[in-house]
Amino acid sequence: MKNRIYMYCLLALTSLFVIPSSFSQTNPGTTTDKNMALGNPSKAKPDTTESDNYLIVKSQYTLSYNNLNHIPNWVSWHVDSTNLGTVDRKNDFRSDTTLPASWYQVTPADYKNTGFDKGHQCPSGDRTSSITDNSATFLMTNMIPQAPKNNEVTWKNLEEYSRGLVVQGNELYIICGVYGHVGTGKKGAASSIGHGVEVPEKTWKIIVVVPAHSGITATTRVIAVLMPNTQNCSKQPWSSYRVSVNSLEKLTGYDFLTNVPENIQKIIEAKVDNVPIKNGK
Q1: All domains of the chain, ordered by start, with CATH?
Q2: pTM over 0.70
Q3: Mean pLDDT of all residues in the chain?
């Protein structure tokens, strides 16, 4: 009888929380790496016939690459204290030679004099524990044409805030990406740059904040933002762009956090983060 009661209690607890490292991989094309532990939102596959949703797995991050637009649809990664070190920013922007041979490889020259930044998705600052890891963030498959005031101010402030959460003892599960066409950089609006590199209209990000060695529950903090890819973006702090995960799903058509139990997923995806942010940054 005691054993039976114990099993019931264990099952009940399992339904309330989940340890990220033990998520089941239920979607086609998902990997077992921590960088995509929360799921594969577009069901990307490492299949060249899926040229607009091609799965690329690196040890530093995982992404869905769009060879039609020459930018990632989304990039997913995990950050904890082991990823943050003292390695200097490498700045070795370069083509990703691991792309299928027949595909165009974006180069830094595609961005030259366009008025748009080479905007990291998985940021250099999240991979400072080794030269190899930091250098990997400078591959062009990890870049989007980003309005400088979005990239260098608003987006950057969110990245720095996120790393501060890691320093406070949390680990983060992050996914970010793009939506729409036509952004506005230093030289005005553009739909594409270089050799057909698409300029997105908006940038979005989801950050799941988990205390180290803990799990995801209905009270887990989830920060989701949607920002215009424009020079006016910096007129507001990143915190003013907070939205719900549900709203991002409706906008993008993606299904986020699929490896989180559905009862928890429904609760945390409906919330809009409202934690006060110091100095508005």
Answers
A1: 2-280 (3.40.570.10)
A2: yes
A3: 91
